[in-house]
Amino acid sequence: MTSTIENSSVSATFADLDLPDSLLKAVTDLGFTQPTDIQLAAIPPLLAGRDITGIAQTGTGKTAAFGLPLLSLIDPSLPQLQAVVLTPTRELAMQVADAISELASHLGGVNVVAVYGGAPYGQQIYALRNGAQVLVGTPGRVMDHLDKGTANFSSVKMLVLDEADEMLRMGFAEDVDTIFRQAPEQRQVALFSATMPPAIRKVAQEHLVDPVEIAVSRQSSTVTSVEQRFAVVPFRHKVGALSRILATTDAEAAIVFCRTRAAAEEVGVELVARGVSAATISGDVAQREREKIVDRLRNGQLDVLVATDVAARGLDVERIGLVVNFDVPREAEAYVHRIGRTGRAGRTGIAMTFVTPQERNKLRHIERTIRTQLVETAVPSPADVSAHRTKKLLEQVSERIPAGRLDMYRRLVREHAETTGADINDVVAAVLALGVGDDGPSARRVAEQAAHDEITAAQQPPKRGARDDVDRSTRRDFKRDQRRGSRDDSSWGDSGRREMRGHGRQVRDDSPGARHPKPHRTPADATRYRVSVGFDTGAEPRGIVGAITNEGGLRGADIGKIAMFGSFALVDISTPLNPGQIKRIGRAKVGGRPLQLQVDEGPRKRYDDNRKNRHDDARGGRREDKPRHRHSKDNHR
Hints:
The chain is of the alpha/beta class. The chain folds into 4 domains: 220 residues, 3-Layer(aba) Sandwich (Rossmann fold), CATH 3.40.50.300; 157 residues, P-loop containing nucleotide triphosphate hydrolases (Rossmann fold, 3-Layer(aba) Sandwich); 53 residues, no CATH class; 110 residues, Alpha-Beta Plaits, CATH 3.30.70.330.
């Protein structure tokens, strides 16, 4: 049975869904009034014991859609694992675990544990051994607990796959299959995915029994409560445009998405330098530090979070009213995941996407896919920023006047006007200008206005046949600004530079599903590691990448060349690993075997020697004058 859900006009309530009273109380406490489309469609069949597949994007209420039926199955008096939820990332695991705990607030005795790589085993093992009934975790860490015997699936009644497409993209297909085999045959399964590619359908066919297929329409799932905008901004002016947008927004907090870790770090540094309360999270930020940053954002100590796609997955902070796509996402699904960080649970939000003049076609593709047209918006000018700040200051002035005790200030203003001969209105206006940081004509403000004028010019559609001239001019300006260290330069990291030079050529980024250029280029200072899995053990490169990134807290762009052999593989990693990361990655399993990660010295030398020989041969050197090396063809795969 397949049901496609459009925006529902039926005024249903949670009480209409036959949920237990304890769960209805929790729903009321959380402020939920009407079920979302996915909740209306998924909760009844799950309560009836059916398996389901649900196609729905983030921000549609999926967690409650499976969390409420899941909790209805839990016996609080039984201190055994009764439900398992798999998520692709640790951030989403924490988010889902917190949400289920809130929904279970009136059940009494229901314990939820989140397990994921990068966190100590001790607390997780303690929770599992002391009767946790619900386990939420990433496939790799769940597999570890199964192997250690610290997780027992014999009493599991429900198994949930959340964001299944992301899980498979990250190379967890084999782990997911193994986890399914560990669960009892008589279990209920709920599979949620943003898309339904063949690999996901295969999982459903193999592990679900006569599932109810639910599809929330793509248009209704693209967070209709979010006002979606875009602005055309040249690369080198992106940070300047971003700072002015942040300065004029009324949102309590904002999240800025970047494709690469390097871009996120540099944008974060630049915003802080401009006085913005900002912090950055990416794949290489330690889990404990990441949690502290998110807590600061949640409690108002931080206003702007700069993040990569993977690092922000599962993030739900009520204060976020603005999402800025610093780079155009490569895929429409990534766009939907990004803007889903705002406009959640009935709240409204704004999503702004920066588009370079050469990226208009990318934007059109996203619009066609999500069936929504983004509204083009002008970037605020320096004058707009001053006007906005002045308006806010005048609002404070209006609140201050009734408080009284202004006689001294009236006298000082009057005396100053009389002494200098200035008009008293000019004196008040100058005080306002200084109060919002406008110190009059200056080289800085002239440069800001010139940059804004370039942004305004870029918003005009290019004339036909003029693209090459625009691209060449942009590249020249980019290189010039790099030499000058322009403050408005926004060609952050490899993302900006390569796209400027290669007219949109794909580069490695931080998203697990990104398409990467081949062959991969490994930085000269990368470290080559050996892992004890290869073709003969059933391992594939994507599985190795998934294990390393998830357990080591790395991003895809940190992984360079992977040379696959029969019983082992060589992996180039550009980010230095600490002993803890090496140990965690070494314990991770691919194809049922631990990676046993260790630094490898020999293969790099052989590889570099062969490169040198090929280079010498190309220059006319005689092969017999050079030592011969046996070089496996696997190295070229």
